Amino acid sequence: MFKYVKQLTSLVAMIAVLFTFTTETMAAKKSKTLKNTQKKGFVRCGVSQGLPGFSNADAAGNWTGVDVDVCRAVAAAVLGDANKVKFTPLSAKERFTALTSGEIDILSRNTTWTLSRDADIGLTFVGVNFYDGQGFMVRKDSGITSTSQFKDGISACTNIGTTTELNMRDFFNSKGISYTPVAFEKADEVVAAYDAGRCDTYTTDKSGLAAQRTKMTNPDDHMVLPETISKEPLGPVVRQGDSVWEDIVRWSLNTMIEAEEYGVTSANADSMKTSDNPQIKRLVGAEGEMGAAFGLDNEWNLRIIKQVGNYGESYKRNIADTGILPDRGPNELWTKGGILYVPPSR
Amino acid sequence: MKFKKILPQFLTLLFIVLIFGFFTMNAQENMDTRGIEFGFGFLSKEASFDIQFSLIDYDGSMSYGRAYLVGLLNTLLVSFIGIILSTILGIIIGVARLSPNYLINKTASFYVEFFRNVPLLLQIFFWYFAALRALPMPEDASLFFGSSYMTIKGLYTVAPVWNNFDIFFIALIIAIIVIFFFNKFAKKKQEEEGKQYPKFFISLGIFIIIPAITFIVGGVDLSWSFPELKQLAKTSFTYEGGMGIPPELIALTLALTLYTATFIAENVRAGIQGVGKGQKEAAASIGLTPSQVLKLVIMPQALRIIIPPTTNQYLNLTKNSSLAAAIAYPDLVLVFAGTAMMQTGRAIEIVGITMATYLTISLAISMFMNWYNKRIAIQEK
Fold first, then answer.
1. Is the model's pLDDT at A21 over the cut of 50?
2. In terms of CA atoms, which chain B residue is nearest residue A114?
3. B29–A contact, CB cutoff 8 A
4. Helix, strand or coil for residue B131?
5. Which of A69, A219, A240, A294 has its CB surrounded by the most CB atoms within 10 Å?
6. Is CATH 3.40.190.10 the right assignment for the domain spanning A32-131+234-336?
């Protein structure tokens, strides 16, 4: 019998370890994500595999883009430093699994907010940081200037795992046009195949088309058609079940948009502390206890504005100045003819 | 003492059950807290996405189950073509490597060394993108074989248009059954009376004549549909009618075939070299013709060396076909574990089904090859 004592004890020990692990996960309930993030010292953020203007890494591995800035804002609020973010590039297919399985804590990857995604698969959308719509790109020399010129037999390149495939079908079906979908797993291959002439048109969100056009051999040979065939509100996503974390991400984004509305920028944020407007004072942490509800200090929003900037600065830096979409269109503040409107921080 | 024997085994089993239990419990709990439900009901829901290439009738209004079937059939199609072509090419290259001709011998070894040492995914990308760039646009394509066009959008060729295809199909099956019984009869005759028939030519004759009769009396009719150039826009063309084979399928088949054939070629070479020289000489000395030597003496001994590792290659080819997702060939992984998984969010269920499917395909191939191996194995007396 003694022969097995050693094996038995190790077995019992392993089982014991398993059980303590289980009970621990059950006990830690209230904003586990915030606690873990502060313990780790960085925000785990899921981004795209390279979409200029939204999330794109340069040769040195520095990430930039409006989606990236949302994660940076959360890092500034929670950890005090906008650079304490670990970015995980994800394909469209992997993104939700990475989030629900806990590999990342924020998914900020030009993801469309839809009912089924919000309700079905254990995700919560916290807001919209870019209003987009699906469009078509064609070669200029084809002479096509409108989707009404599409004919039976057209082939359309796109990538899988997105709402694009569904919108495309709805669009062609409603027009009664027969088409060939050519769906790739990654955006780079879609661009390469369309560029080579495999497809007559390339369809995805218009912002994506504008960004990917810059990657073509001759960007000037291609144009985006004026029609928009769907609503694509893009925004950051968190796991369902941690409402505190959800609120932190939501209000980090809202802070950036509201700061633009009140003219608070990274340059003047400190001086705004002495503003006469109580709304502005709340935005820079000089009045009220705006961070307490999240378990954060009072200057969480000031740090976001100082380190990342307001939404307008982020848009200009990433999307307008890079020549992707100089015109803000619907992504302008509601006070300036756009539809960006966020609830007040108070 | 029996107890001492059983206890460790029992504990190991208990341990495995506990581990599985732990993971299941954890997964369930995590899914509960995030509001994810487990179930296969989604398979009957409307898929609402279209698929580029399908062997069966499919459009987006059909169910996810149907989309699964489309993906499965596409995987089976590319695996089947790949296995056939790589076997043929593998045998040719394998024999060429043993050729006394310096040029043939060196070309074959260069081919083997090159294609088996470059990662398969790279080869797939190469054939897809290099070929895409090299192929002409539809309007510039030149005719070959009288009615086919090879273009960047695919291979457009003639399609058969059948009348009463089912009658023709039944005739084919009847022909195969007749051939089977004829061969049995011929074998018996040879064993009992030593009489030999020209089995191959008679079988071929049966295979052609029986289905041909249906054209005369069965009302079977065959006509052809030819691809025709169609203008979509000023500089954009496509072909209509006929049969279109997507470039993704061609590139994938090509890459899988060229890659797997190198390994099969090495198996074939090993098999032939594994049969002693004396065997051949002994067979020749009792008066067998060279083709009989190959068929009756060399091959049965070589095949038992060739088949088991070749089975592995068939399995590899089938599993490697899942790299299709990279170049938009709508196989099981792209359609089901890709789009369908994304639209439904049922990661656990869909990955589970996909894994079970590949396992089933692989086991089926294994079983068939084991059966074949047993059948042709030398019965030692």
1. no
2. B343
3. yes
4. helix
5. A69
6. yes
Domains of chain A, by residue range, sit at: 32-131+234-336, 134-230
Write out chain A residues lying below 8 Å of B246, CB-based.
Answer: 182
Cα distance between residue A44 and residue A105, in whole Å = 5
The model's confidence at residue A1, banded by pLDDT at 50, 70 and 90, is very low
pLDDT of residue B4: 80
Comparing alpha-carbon positions, the chain A residue that sits nearest to B52 is A181
The predicted-structure confidence for A39-66, as pLDDT tens digits, reads as follows 999 999 999 988 889 999 998 989 999 9
Structural domains of chain B, ranges and CATH numbers in brackets:
44-138+246-376 (1.10.3720.10)
**Residue ranges of chain B with pLDDT lower than 70?**
1, 34-35, 378-381
Which ipTM did the prediction report?
Answer: 0.79
Sign of CA dihedral A77, A79, A85, A90: negative
Residue at token pair 């599409």 = A150
Buried-exposed string A108-146: b where 16+ CB fall within 10 A, e elsewhere: bbbbbbeeebeebbbbbbbbbbbbbbbbbbbbeebebee
Q: What's the pLDDT at B367?
A: 93
| All residues at 6 or more sequence positions from B47 whose CB lies less than 8 Å from its CB, including other chains | B60, B62, B63, B64, B66, B67, B340, B343
Q: What is the pLDDT of residue A235?
A: 95
Confidence of residue A22 (pLDDT cuts 50, 70, 90): very low
Pairwise CB contact (< 8 Å): B342 & A186: no
How does pLDDT run across A290-338, given as a tens digit for each residue? 888 888 899 999 999 999 999 999 999 999 998 888 889 899 999 999 9
Buried b (16+ CB within 10 A) or exposed e, B96-114: bbeeeeeeeeeebeebbee
CB distance B34–A100 less than 8 Å?
yes
Question: Looking at domain A134-230, which CATH architecture does it have?
Answer: 3-Layer(aba) Sandwich (3.40)
The answer to whether residues B214 and B168 touch, using CB atoms and an 8 Å cutoff, is: yes
Query: Quick one: which H or E segment has residue A180?
Result: strand A179-184
pLDDT of residue A3: 57
Q: What residues contact residue B158 under an 8 Å CB cut-off, 6+ apart?
A: B147, B148, B224, B225, B226, B227, B242, B243
Question: Please, which residues bridge with residue B160 across strands?
Answer: B224
Q: Which two tokens stand for residue B113?
A: 């060394």
Distance CA B264, CA A30 (A): 58
Measured CA to CA in angstroms, residue A102 lies from A77, A111, A162, B177, B219 at distances of 21, 18, 21, 58, 64
Closest partner residue to B18 (CB to CB) among A15, A185, A241 is A15
Instruction: Please check whether residue A154 is in contact with residue A177, taking contact to mean a CB–CB distance below 8 angstroms.
Output: yes
